[in-house]
Amino acid sequence: METARVDSGQIREAYLWYGNAMFAAATLERSLVNAAAIHRLAAAAREGRELVSDPFVKAAKAGMDDNIKKIKVRLEQHPGLEDRLLQAKDRRNHLAHDFCFHRASDLFAAEPTGRLIEELASDVPAFLDLHDEVVAVSRAIMEEAGMDLDAADRLHVALVEMAVRGE
Question: Residue 43: its pLDDT value, please?
Answer without folding.
Answer: 95
